[in-house]
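Course assignment 3, question 2. Fill in each field.
Student: A.L.
Task: Predict the tertiary structure for the chain below.
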Amino acid sequence: MAQKKRPQRGGDYQGKPKRGTEGRTKGAQGRGARFTAQQRMPQASRTQQTAAPQRRDVHAAEGNYIEGRRAAFEALRTGFPIKRALIAQGVENEPAIRDLLGGLGEAGVSVKSVPRTQLDAISSHGAHQGIVLEVGKFPYADLSDIIAAAPAGSPALVVVLDHVTDAGNFGAIVRSAEVVGAAGVVIPNKRSAEVTVATYKTSAGAVMHLPIAQVPNIARALEDLKSAGFWVGGATEHAEDVCWDAPFEGRVALVMGSEGDGISRLVLDTCDFTTKLPQRGETESLNVAQAATALCFEWMRRNRDSLA
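Answer field:
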């Protein structure tokens, strides 16, 4: 189906000319604003800092584990390669665990019963629910894989995260992107949240269904997406127009900025348009994961006839 013609306006959401058929002009000048105010906790005293150091979990940081029953079920259902399963002692007779043990047995995965404290040490949030799967390093996709997953001429969504650092936000965004049928998620390979035990959990296993690409340069990745026919939109609370008026029809690369600084200047300059969520209340704004979810569903709503 041919793409709908983009709405013609005198300028983009920051007042600059829109990208025409003979080339793209840089749009959306100005610093990208965050969707959520950066929260600063009161600084602890020097005594408190030295007296209560936080535990640093090396295994969780390496992303070698999947924790939680739902994520474990998803790993088995999708055929994700599992090295072994660790089960907390005393949970073997629980119905959900029995079902998991049956699936693990059929998949030929070795199972080891361990003290719950061992799972606590691996877990990112202490919410392992009695099971942890050792899976090795996450197999990231290439950007070309994501582009290939979006057939030319068809509506497609790619969510691009400009240095989102919180694992909970990252996992929630991946989950929302997968639910609306996005082609993939793109993240930087440095100074960004990665797929770890925490994101397996917070995405409810969605990281196993959706291609996730790590790239060295977000702005360059956006140019590659433009070459593949994507219209690049940046989410910033400083945008002039709300998402109801954004050109979300067809192939869209939705850029979400970091929790503290929003979209970087270079990445914002690469965007074709900017957009924001409508707001009537007094709270400053939603956080990046909530905002991404709302915008993903707005893209899905706009393209519902073509996606049906």
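Instructor remarks: The two ends are 12 Å apart (CA to CA). The first helix runs from residue 46 to 51.
Grade: pending
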